[in-house]
Amino acid sequence: MTDPLRILGIETSCDETAAAIVLRHPDGRGEIVSDVVLSQLDEHSAYGGVVPEIAARAHVEALDTLIEEALARANLSLADVDAIAATAGPGLIGGLLVGLMTAKAMARAADKPLYAVNHLEGHALTARLTDGLSFPYLMLLVSGGHTQLILVRGVGDYQRWGTTIDDALGEAFDKTAKLLGLPYPGGPAVERAALSGDADRFSFPRPLVGEARLDFSFSGLKTAVRQTATGLQPLKTQDVSDICASFQKAVSRTLKDRIGRGLQRFRDLYPAIEKPSLVVAGGVAANKVLRQTLHDLCAANNFTFVAPPMRLCTDNAAMIAWAGLERLAEGLPADDLATAPRSRWPLDPEAAAKIGSGKRGVKA
Ligand code: KG4
Ligand code: ZN
């Protein structure tokens, strides 16, 4: 029997420092042997968002130890791995530099191939690691920095069908929380407050609903929340709950319309695939109301709804390692040690940049 391929993955594009060892067995099955993540949440929460300088410094301080720990937990030394994969973009340039330079130095010292991975590709291919999904499938990435609907056709072969033209969905949750006086990160706080709220008290806008294109827009929704909150000052706890519940309802309806159209487009394109898959990833995928919406939408359209475990939906190094392994296994060339990190790096080079999309350029 042949040995599995082994790879070390490194992720430093935003506020999580992470390292992982992942295997790819000869039958194509993936196995996460170690996966360590250090969240910087505490360091940024006082500022209500990620501070690039603090993030870069925290990556420098933590990364070496995390890599050692990932190797030790896997009972391997650097000499035992077949390659090193590191996130090269998109994300915060300071953090990307830390991870990629470390990976380059290790690749040089141990004479291993280096794979410079697109962070979005890591998210896009995770479902093949966790669920062994075959191509093609549809992926919805909903995080603090991205809201994208992507057709995943193969390794390195992506078509972006829709993206936000202003705020990312996670950003809309965070901003809504902030203007209601709820803590950062806003998503979980809004979801919690919404539990005791009346989702029908306010009718918030559902931008782009009914339009044929598959893009998203959330800034109008946020503005409507602000106007409502201003009109109700001083806000009572019940007002906050009702606004949160109504906000989630508007988001739910918007996703149902937008993603529903995406599923239809997939069917038209691949009529022979009887039960295709929709994969969801990103921190917003933790939201139970939105999860239920997507689950029901898939059931109604005879799609399989695939949600990898939350730990792998949010930022981690196992997905970066796996993206490197997919390229290694396909015999795709490794990257040059001169490869530079890129704060912007669309998965689909054909897709036109949308005004405002990923404007923070920080989170994916
Ligand atoms: O993927 P992620 O952990 O980090 C990056 O953006 O890279 O996503 C974080 C985002 C934040 O905007 C956070 O508010 C949102 O995901 N989020 C949620 C929930 N949990 C986290 N949004 C809605 N509902 C949640 N339960
Ligand atoms: Zn991400």
Can you walk through the features of this model?
The chain folds into 2 domains: 143 residues, 2-Layer Sandwich (Nucleotidyltransferase, domain 5), CATH 3.30.420; 174 residues, Nucleotidyltransferase, domain 5, CATH 3.30.420.40. With 364 residues, it is of the alpha/beta class. It contains 11 helices and 10 strands. The protein has a 5-stranded mixed sheet with strand order 3-2-1-4-5, with helices on both faces. The protein has a 5-stranded mixed sheet with strand order 8-7-6-9-10, with helices on both faces. The chain is globular and about 65 Å long. 42% of the residues lie in helices and 18% in strands. Strand 9, helix 9 and strand 10 form a beta-alpha-beta unit. Helix 6 crosses helix 8 and helix 7 packs antiparallel against helix 8. The site of zinc ion has 5 residues, from helix 4. Zinc ion binds next to helix 4.
Major beta sheet, strand line-up = 3-2-1-4-5
- How many β-strand runs? 10
CATH fold-level name of the largest domain: Nucleotidyltransferase, domain 5
Distance between the termini: 38 Å
Per CATH, the architecture of the largest domain is: 2-Layer Sandwich
Shape: globular
> Can you give the helix content as a percent range?
40-55%
What's the structural domain tally? 2
Q: Which band does the percent of strand residues land in? A: 15-25%
CATH superfamily of the largest domain: ATPase, nucleotide binding domain
As a whole number of angstroms, the C-alpha radius of gyration is 20 Å
N-to-C SSE string, H for helix and E for strand: EEEHHEHEHEEEHHHHEHEHH
Tell me the number of helical segments per DSSP (H or I, 4 or more residues long): 11
Structural class: alpha/beta
How many strands, what sense, and barrel or not for the largest sheet? 5 strands, mixed
Poorly predicted ranges: 356-364
